Amino acid sequence: MEESVGSLQQGNHPLSKKLKKILDTRLDNDKDMIEALKTVSTFFTDNNIRTRRNLRGEIERRSLLINQQFVDAFSHVVKDLELIHADVQSMTVCCKDMTDRLSATKEQTQELITMTSDLKSEEQRLQVHSDLAQAFLDRFQLKPNEMKVFHGTRDGHLDPGFFAVLEKVQKIHADVKVLLRTNQQTAGLEIMEQMALQQESAYERLYRWSQSQCRSLTSDAIDITPIQQQAMKALQNRPVLFSYTLDEYSTARRGAVVRGFIDALTRGIPSGPPGSPTLESEKKIQGPKPIELHAHDPMRYVGDMLAWLHQASASEKENITQLLSECEKSTEDANRDTLAHVLEGACRPLKVRVEQVLVSEPGTLTLYKLTNLLKFYHDTIRDIIGKACENISLLETINDMYILCRKLFFNSLQYLASKLLDKVELPPSDLSPPRTLNDTIHLLRDIFDSHDSSILPAAERHTDLVQVMTQVLDPLLQMCAMSASQLQPADMAAYVINCMHSIKFMLSLYEFTDQKIEMLSAQIDAHLDTLVNEQAASILMRGGLANVYKTILKHEHDTGPLSKLAGLDRSAMTSAFQHFDDVIHSPDESVLPQVSMLASATLKEVASSRANELVSSAYKVVYDVFTNEKNGYDSATFTVKTPDQIRLLLC
Amino acid sequence: MAAGPYNYSYIFKYIIIGDMGVGKSCLLHQFTEKKFMADCPHTIGVEFGTRIIEVSGQKIKLQIWDTAGQERFRAVTRSYYRGAAGALMVYDITRRSTYNHLSSWLTDARNLTNPNTVIFLIGNKGDLDAQRDVTYEEAKQFADENGLLFLEASAKTGDNVEDVFLETAKKIFQNIQDGSLDLNAAESGVQHKPSARPGQTLNNEQQPKDSNCSC
């Protein structure tokens, strides 16, 4: 500014330039200038020459002052900076120290870290090993608690977990084979041997346990526990032990069945299970009486015994089925054999009693009923035991009894039949069937009826009965024939017809008798013919036509007139007709007593009408001869009845 | 599998009696199989069924003997009354004749069982109400007069079938609890598991066992 003022004060040329420049200067726009001027105006208050002269100095003095101030201020800063520098310096030292120490430490720990990581990996490896070993042990060895379960306690109690362990042992034993295929053969063999030992001892133990369990199954009602079922299932892997256990079981049950049977027979109250109070001695015995009290009634006695055995069979079948229900392999044979053994014990008591009944001669009919009863129970019990049941001693016993009973029955029939022939009665005077025949028929009827209401299925009927029928009827008919042999033909015919008719009538009630009935009918017809002939002959004889008729028949083929023959002349003929006419008016009187003694009204009817038929046909022959012109009887002078009239009269 | 060591603690023996065709076998079948057996053949002699039930928390095995109704089997079926704890006497509500024969069946049951045997009268075929020939009231009166339990049931629909068997068992069980049924008279038709009756002593020395075994 001083310059511009100075230039303004200079001269022309440069001055003008300067002026121009100054004038051109736009002060408004020069902020620095404005700022400077403002500052100047703060201290340049008095514009006079002196001040103008001093302005420059003033400004310089002020500038100096300001710079002085500046320097002062910065000297502080410098001081501070120096302090900072010192600090930083010390820090650097520290840091350097620390770095040194760090690097030293680092050098030291390097080894440790390597070691640690080595250990870590070692640990991992070991862990894997341990897991593997544990898995191996889990897989191939028993745990201590399992061992405990397995070996059990002194009291022989069997833990339900036993079977799971046993299963595991078996699994291990099977799995070990895999080991043998690898290069772990030693371990495999060892484990295998160990497990085999374990298994054997386990089976041994299981067997002992089952055996003692089975041995205790001696009460009337038993219940098989699930553990027992499982034990049987497990034992099935050891057939010998399995069958020994079943033997034990069946022996125990056999004893129970025999005892129960004997008790039911003799006491009516089976003894209570062991350990149960038996108070019945104090109490009045109620309920069914002992079976043996009915020994006098063979049917009831034998029936009750067999029914008891039937029920026992069903119960025992259930028991054994329950015992073996868990078994996986087929137990049908074991089941049946055991059942057979269980029931075997009752055979002897049964046999003794039934035989006693049979030999006490209970009568033919009862024998027959017993035969059926035995057969019925044989089949019923067989159905329970199962189809393939050979060698079941109870069934064999019952079958033996059946065969014996049947034999005794037929023997008894045989005896009856032979007795019929031994002592043949004379026929009664009224020619009715004799009493023995009626008795026999009655017995047959009873037998047939009891068979009709038999308990056996229909398919088994008839075969026996046909045999019964044959065995009895033949001697019976023989007896009739023998007893009739002394009689006149007419009497014999009537008697035999009566006998046969009553047999036939009885047989006709049954369905299997067709053949016999046919045979009897034929025989009856034959005898009826005899009787009819006798009857016709008797009527003709009484009517006086007999001789005439016979003579006519003799000369049937002669050509000449018959009236010329001796015995056939007209007077003989007319008197015969006369006589016959008298007789024919009262036909009843001419009936043979034998015919009227026929028991059957139908047969009587048939006999009469057939006899009448014969008579009227004979009459017709005589009549034809008489009325024939060529015979020269001069019949027109004598009235005779025509054959039709005779037929009417006879009816 | 059963909870306890035993499947059941009692066995009750039942017998089912009644005329032919009243549905005895069907009732049994409905009870044991829970199915209706149409075209049931005539029973030959005696047949047999079992089922385990529960009464008052006790498992009871029912051993049921189903008899033939045909007259020709009468002699055989009589042998099975021996030792029955329950007798189910069945008639057909649509056939009066089967109801009329009840007294003869009852006589048999009374004579051949023991006095404690529970006799249950069952009017079967309750589903055929339209063809009813015997009223409920009449049968109920008969039952009351003779001291019988009574229900009408239907083997076809299964109505009351369960109840009949269960009620009978309950009654028998009650008799046992009352002490009116002597368990030891095993002819009572009730058999008890030995182990279920602990703490009892053996005192049957007075009775020599099998003393009269004659074999």
Automatic annotation (TrEMBL), chain A:
Which topology term describes how it sits in the membrane? Peripheral membrane protein
Has the keyword Glycoprotein been applied to this entry? no
Which positions carry the signal peptide feature in this UniProt record? none
Task: List localization entries.
Answer: Golgi apparatus membrane
Residue ranges occupied by any Conserved oligomeric complex COG6 N-terminal domain in the UniProt entry: 41-151
TM ranges are none
* A GO biological process held by the record: protein transport
Occurrences of domain Conserved Oligomeric Golgi complex subunit 6 C-terminal (ranges): 185-650
Query: Could you name the domain of life of the organism this protein comes from?
Result: Eukaryota
Q: Which GO terms describe its cellular component?
A: Golgi membrane; Golgi transport complex
Quaternary structure note = Component of the conserved oligomeric Golgi complex which is composed of eight different subunits and is required for normal Golgi morphology and localization.
Q: What does this protein do?
A: Required for normal Golgi function.
Family of this protein: Belongs to the COG6 family.
Name listed for the protein in its UniProt record: Conserved oligomeric Golgi complex subunit 6
User: What is the organism of origin for this protein?
Assistant: Phallusia mammillata
Q: Which gene encodes it?
A: Cog6
From TrEMBL, chain B:
Look at the named UniProt entry and state the broad enzyme category this protein falls under: hydrolase
Q: Tell me what reaction this enzyme catalyses.
A: GTP + H2O = GDP + phosphate + H(+)
Q: Name one GO molecular function term.
A: GTP binding
Per UniProt, the ranges with Polar residues bias are: 198-215
Q: Which PROSITE patterns match?
A: RAB, RAS, RHO
Identify the cofactor(s). Mg(2+)
Q: Which cellular component, as a GO term, is one annotated location?
A: trans-Golgi network
BP-aspect Gene Ontology terms: defense response to bacterium; endocytic recycling; Golgi to endosome transport; phagosome maturation; protein transport
Look up the EC number in the record and give it. 3.6.5.2
* Signal peptide per UniProt: none
Which CDD domains would you find in this protein's record? Rab14
Q: Where is it located?
A: Cytoplasmic vesicle; Early endosome membrane; Golgi apparatus, trans-Golgi network membrane; Recycling endosome
Residues of the region (Disordered) are 188-215
InterPro entries from the UniProt entry: P-loop_NTPase, Rab14, Rab_GTPases_membrane_traffic, Small_GTP-bd, Small_GTPase
Q: Which UniProt keywords apply?
A: Acetylation, Cytoplasmic vesicle, Endosome, Golgi apparatus, GTP-binding, Hydrolase, Lipoprotein, Membrane, Methylation, Nucleotide-binding, Prenylation, Protein transport, Transport
* Gene3D superfamilies for the chain: P-loop containing nucleotide triphosphate hydrolases
| Predominant cellular place of this UniProt entry's protein | cytoplasm
Regarding the membrane, this protein is recorded as: Lipid-anchor
What's the family?
Belongs to the small GTPase superfamily. Rab family.
- Protein's name in the database: Ras-related protein Rab-14
Which species is the source of this protein?
Phallusia mammillata
Q: Which gene encodes it?
A: Rab14
